[in-house]
Structure formats: structure tokens, C-alpha cells
Specification:
The structure is a homodimer.
Chain A (H helix, E strand, L loop, with lengths): L8 E5 L1 H11 L1 H16 L11 E4 L4 E8 L3 E9 L13 E7 L5 E6 L1 H19 L6 E5 L5 H12 L3 E5 L3 H11 L5 E4 L3 H4 L5 E4 L6 E5 L9 E4 L8 E3 L1 H5 L1 E5 L2 H7 L12 E2 H6 L11 E5 L4 H13 L1 H4 L3 E4 L10 H7 L2
Parallel strand pairs in A: 1-6, 7-8, 7-10, 8-9, 10-12, 11-13, 12-16, 14-15, 14-16
Antiparallel strand pairs in A: 1-17, 2-3, 3-4, 4-5, 5-6
Helix pairs in contact in A: 2-3, 2-4, 2-10, 3-4, 3-10
Chain lengths: ~350, ~350
């Protein structure tokens, strides 16, 4: 057996190594540093190839590919969304991702992204709130206490200075799990039995529920003036969380309009309804929040550039930590024209 | 450290294991069985989700994602095409692919596909020729003697009964390499110094060159009546191999017209130029070759369903051979809502 060349190997970050990496760096520091990377990539938004994700829908869920490129590095994420999985003991969302060198097309990183997606989603939400939430916002309602909830809570703590989270889920066991996990992490945690209770005194409302349906997690009368809504769970066609009336009186910020029009809360509105692209707010070329009374909504569906930034962040940590293995994934014969010879000599 | 559940693991076929798998089964048997799988999937063509591949082009190459689904299994391939790679000692084409369960979105196979793409391309070419080449065709010109050439030669031997291959490449070293590799494999191998010489007496002409440009590997006067042309190398925008006049007097067969119009030889023709979908010939709902004098052209660019069939073939061989490893790629907490808890307990 001939040993593969070093070109045949792709660094791979397993679930195990991703967890070790988070602990090595520290969760809140990871969230903060990743948010900075995402913000930096939003600041060079026009440099990226952008396309709405490529979705394969079925009756029970969706499988998506989310590619992007900055001309130097190419990245994509594979991600599914299957709301019925939980009842079968499976994750609603699982993911993995890849970076490749645009100059050669060779992969340079393969990584688990189930955990990384939860991290990057929380980092993006908190980064957006830094620009959109009312000044001094310290209390957040967290509606939907599933797999992503704790990441959101700690992202807002680390990046926005949130000190209190008010939890609500239609499943009280999910709320108990979330409160348990957040205990002792420097946040005041209040468990609530209704959404109305959860939003009491909250300047930020995060909705992160998983049902694949037109749901109404929030109705118009529940949203007071000056609130920032971080809408995370409405992220595919036929899946929304907010009553349409809330959208009509909110200033709406989105990642990539061609994707959000299909997948976000704004699928409930006409295709011409005005929205602001978040990257323009970050760049200072479009206004963010204009008044204290304004209701702002970040209609987040998740965009490929966030995954790209998260994968690059992970890649930047590999040399110093060694938390990866080498995967023999690329056939690389000594003579590149001699793939057949390599195969035949492998006997 | 908590051990991951079995759901966290994705069977992975490395380059090493793919080579062992091919030797375990035998190369010609692999090509023949894979062609049968591809043909079977062409027979249920309407059952598949089909989309032109999603391409990210740069000055030096292209990176593509090729997804498809039959409603039960989802598959995609990552593949690059970088003609300049060879000069840097790298493969022009590298690839890997994935299968997933549509019902849950969980991946069920990750595999190298550089070798597998060469196998499936040869299997598809030979399968198409079975339906399109003139009866009794036994001599094939093979123009372009790079990484895919030997696979094409042996595919046509195993599946179509070709007994003689006539090799030509602008690089004589590539022809020598190819002739060397094919020696002793039951084919009469003739090395030629011009394309004109290579096509002498050939009933089948396979073109599989790699330059990313509008090239003219064959001109009209070189193609005699009754020949079947297997055009493999013209497979992206701006990359063709055949003079337009050849196309105008050929009956043209394609995989998936929306993709081939962009990428194939027929990018040189008007978008209305009539073409026949190969799957309809296989099903008997469209004519294949009608006369002995007819020039037939399989304008092959490679389609996702071929990769899907190839991956399913590999997957079907894993239990009996054990030629895979388990990759810890999917985070799978005991309580699917408790991704955070899994992460925190991993310390």
C-alpha cells in the first residue's frame, strides 16, 4: 500500500473536537470572537458570491446546501431541518460544512456544524442586536427553549450585556432544561408559563421555535414600543412565528433579501415591502434604529456568509490547538494524470 | 468524555478504502455493475428532483455542487474543475459526495468521489454507447489520455465489447502513460501521433480532454458516417471540444437539457436546437440511432443522478466488505433539545 500524499488529506473537525475546541477557548469568548468575524464579513458583503440556499423540500423537512465564496476561499454548509425529528430522538437541525481553496478547488477544512450552527446563529443574532436593540437593553424574553436557546442567551450576555433572560416554551420540560443549563452562568433566569409573562419588561424578544407551520408565537398587542425582536425560528417557506401586524409596524432588517423573502417572516408580506439589509446598517450606509419608540425586527433566516465566517474562525484555531484529524478524502496521485495508475498500484 | 451515540456516526469511504473496494470487486465488474445502477436510475428519471449544478466560477476553475433526490434518499457531490492544477502537480478534478436520509435529513454516507467520478463517468459513457453506437462497434478512438482515459477504455471494453483503443493526446507522455496502464488488460492498444490517425477505423470516438477553452479536438471532415461520438470533455461554459459543424449533422443525446445547454457542446448551438434526452431512449419513448449512417453524439456533461447511483452502489457494498470507517460528524445528544447540555457535559 502506497501512503497518500499530504495533499490527499483534509483537516476534519469532529463533533468531539468541536466540543473540545469550545471548552479550550471558552464558550462566551468563542461567541464574541465569532461575532466579530461575522461582523467583519458583513462589512465586505459586496465581495461575496451570494445565492439563496438550494433547498430540497419533502413532506417532513428540508435539506439545504448553502454555498458562498469571497474569491479566495469557497465554503458551503449542508443542513437539514426536520421538526418531526425530535419525537424520534433526533436533532431537528444537523449540519456539516466545508471550506475549499478557490485557486485549486481542493478542500481545506471539513467540520461538524450542528454545534457550530448554534454558535454562529447566536453570534449573528447578538451582533445584529448590538446595532438594533434599544440602548441599555438588559432583559431578553427567550421564546422557544430548544436546542438553540442557551446559545442565544449566552450570546446576548457576552455580546450585548443582557443580564436577565425570561424563558417560555409550550413544552415546560424544555424551559426547565434550559433554565437548568443556564444556572450559574451569570444570568438572572426567570421561567415563565406564558409568552405574555416572558415578555414582561423585556427590551429584546428572541423567538426561536421549531414548528414547521405558520405559527403565531407573538401577536401584535404583545409587542410594546421600543422593543427589538430577534426572529430566528421563521426560516423556511411555510414557517413563521410572528403575526403579520407586528411586521407592519416594525422596521425590518434582513440578511439577504432574495432568501428572506422566501423563508423569513416577510414571506407574509408583499415582495415590495421595504426592508433594510443588515450589512448596510453595519457599514453605516443605511439607518438602523432611529428612535427609542421604534420596533425593530431582525428577520433572521441564516445566511451562507455567517457559516463561512464561522468555518474560517474554526480553521484559524486548528494550528494552535491541534483539535482536528486528517481525512483521506482527496485522491492525489504523484502524476496528476495517472489516477488509474495510483488505483492499480494500490493492490 | 461521553461516547457519541451511534447516530452521531456517518460511514466514510476514504480514498484508501475506495481503492480497496475496487480491487475487492474487480474494476471491470465495478464498471459493469455501476452502469447497471445508473441505467436503472435513468429508467426512473421522472422520480428525481433535478436542478442544474450550482457552480462557483473563478478565473482558474469552477467549484460545483450537484444535488438530487429520489424522495427517499438525497445525494450531492462536491466537485471542482481546475485545468491549471496539473501543472502544479494537482488533480484537475477532485470530488467527494454524500447520501442522506430524506425522512430525517441525517447523512448516511460520505465518500471520496475523485476515483468514483472517473468510474461513474466511464460507466455512463459506455451505458449510453450501448444504446447509441453502431452495432458491432469494436474500435474506439480515445482522444485525451489524462486521468479519465483508462477508465473510459475499460468501461467500453467491459460494457460495449470494444476490443481496440486508439490513443491520442497533444502530450505524448500522457499517451505513453495511458498505453502503459492499459497493457495486458485484454485490449489492443494503438498509440497515435495525430487525432486523424486515432480515428482511423474507429466506430466510436471518445473525446475526454481537459482544456478550459473553446477547442476543436475534432473537425467535421474527421467524422465519418455511422460514428458514435462520446463527448466527455466539453463540460462547462466556455469549454467545448467539437467543431460546430459536427453538431449540425449529428443526432444529439444529452443527460439533462437545462444543464447541457449551458455546459455541453450544444452551448455552441441555438437554445432551440433539437436534442434527445438519453433516459427517453433507454425507456424506449424516444428513438436512439435510426440508421447505420447516422452520426450520434452523446454530449455528456455529467449529471447528479449518475453520482447518486454511484454512491448508492458504493453504499450497497459496505456491509459485506467493511471498507469504511465511522466519522463522528453529527452531534446527537441523548435529549435532542439538549445540544447545549451535551456540549457542557463534554468537559
Amino acid at each position: 500500500m502506497i501512503t497518500p500524499s499530504h495533499l490527499a488529506f483534509v483537516p476534519f473537525v469532529s463533533v468531539h473536537n468541536m466540543m473540545k475546541l469550545v471548552h479550550h477557548i471558552g464558550l462566551e469568548r468563542v461567541l464574541t470572537e465569532m461575532a466579530a468575524e461575522i461582523e467583519a464579513d458583513f462589512r465586505r458583503w459586496p465581495d461575496f458570491d451570494k445565492t439563496p440556499r438550494i433547498a430540497a423540500h419533502s413532506d417532513v423537512g428540508v435539506i439545504e446546501l448553502m454555498p458562498t465564496s469571497d474569491g479566495e476561499t469557497y465554503g458551503f454548509k449542508y443542513v437539514n431541518g426536520h421538526p418531526g425529528n425530535m419525537k424520534r430522538g433526533l436533532q431537528t437541525v444537523t449540519a456539516f460544512g466545508l471550506l475549499a481553496d478557490v485557486a485549486t478547488g481542493y478542500p481545506v477544512l471539513l467540520s461538524e456544524m450542528t454545534i457550530l450552527t448554534a454558535l454562529r446563529t447566536a453570534a449573528t443574532s447578538a451582533m445584529a442586536a448590538k446595532f438594533l436593540a434599544p440602548p441599555g437593553a438588559a432583559t431578553m424574553a427567550l421564546i422557544g427553549n430548544g436546542a438553540q436557546a442557551e446559545f442565544q442567551a449566552l450570546g446576548f450576555k457576552a455580546i450585548c450585556g443582557v443580564t436577565e433572560v425570561r424563558l417560555y416554551d409550550i413544552d415546560a420540560a424544555a424551559t426547565a432544561k434550559c433554565a437548568d443549563n443556564l444556572a450559574g452562568r451569570g444570568l438572572k433566569v426567570v421561567t415563565c408559563t406564558t409568552a405574555e409573562d416572558a415578555i414582561l419588561g423585556a427590551q429584546i424578544i428572541t423567538t426561536v421555535t421549531a414548528d414547521k407551520q405558520y405559527a403565531t408565537i407573538l401577536t401584535d398587542n404583545m409587542v410594546g414600543s421600543g422593543v427589538h425582536i430577534n426572529g430566528v425560528g421563521g426560516d423556511c417557506p411555510g414557517k413563521t412565528e410572528l403575526h403579520r401586524d407586528i411586521l407592519l409596524r416594525s422596521t425590518i432588517f434582513v440578511e439577504y433579501p432574495p432568501q428572506t423573502r422566501i423563508e423569513g417572516e416577510i414571506q407574509q408580506l408583499s415582495p415590495e415591502h421595504p426592508v433594510t439589509e443588515l450589512w448596510q446598517v453595519i457599514m453605516g450606509t443605511a439607518p438602523g434604529r432611529s428612535t427609542v419608540q421604534e420596533v425593530t425586527l431582525f428577520d433572521s433566516v441564516g445566511f451562507a456568509i455567517e457559516d463561512f465566517a464561522a468555518l474560517r474562525y474554526v480553521r484559524s484555531k486548528l494550528a494552535e490547538t491541534g483539535l482536528f484529524t486528517q481525512l483521506d478524502m482527496i485522491a492525489d496521485p504523484d502524476d496528476p494524470r495517472d489516477l488509474f495508475g495510483m488505483l492499480m498500484r494500490a493492490i
